């Protein structure tokens, strides 16, 4: 799944496209997507491969997996996470979604991610 949003050349362009297509609608979700560069949660064979971080496609390398950005936006918008809430992510993979959740929960929230390799 994914590929519904045009690719960007950097994280801000990807987020701009997700907002333009109304995948991101809330300011808080936009803020955390801009704070976290997807490429920082990926590994690359060559420096030129980093552009795939800004495509709206799932990514896998060995045991590491990231869903398409549009999938993460749907989850973050529908969860409606806020300060002081709790979040448990079973199968947290690279920690990308858990990190976004933690930024929304703030210092008073409780955030756990569990992954087994």
Structural class: alpha+beta
The side-by-side strand order for the widest beta sheet comes to 1-2
Low-confidence stretches: none
The description of the largest β-sheet is: 2 strands, antiparallel
**Percent helix range:** 25-40%
Count helical runs.
4
The overall strand count is 4
> What is the string of SSEs from the N terminus onward?
HHEEHEHE
Range of strand content: 5-15%
Radius of gyration using CA atoms only: 14 Å
Arithmetic mean of pLDDT: 91
End-to-end separation: 23 Å
The global form is globular
Write up this protein.
- This protein has 117 residues and is α+β, with helices and mostly antiparallel strands.
- Helices cover 34% and strands 14% of the residues.
- The protein contains 4 helices and 4 strands; from the N terminus they run ααββαβαβ.
- The chain has helices spanning 11-20, 27-35, 69-79, 96-105; strands at 59-61, 64-66, 86-90, 110-114.
- The strands form 2 sheets. A two-stranded antiparallel sheet has the order 1-2. Strands 3-4 form a two-stranded parallel sheet.
- Strand 1 and strand 2 form a beta hairpin.
- Helix 2 packs across helix 4.
- The longest helix is centred in the middle third of the chain and has 11 residues, at 69-79.
- The chain is globular and about 40 Å long.
- The two termini are 23 Å apart.
- The mean pLDDT is 91.
Features:
single chain, 117 residues, alpha+beta, two-stranded parallel sheet, 34% helix
Brief account:
It contains 4 helices and 4 strands, in the order H-H-E-E-H-E-H-E. By secondary structure, the chain is α+β, with helices and mostly antiparallel strands. A two-stranded antiparallel sheet has the order 1-2. It has a two-stranded parallel ribbon with strand order 3-4.
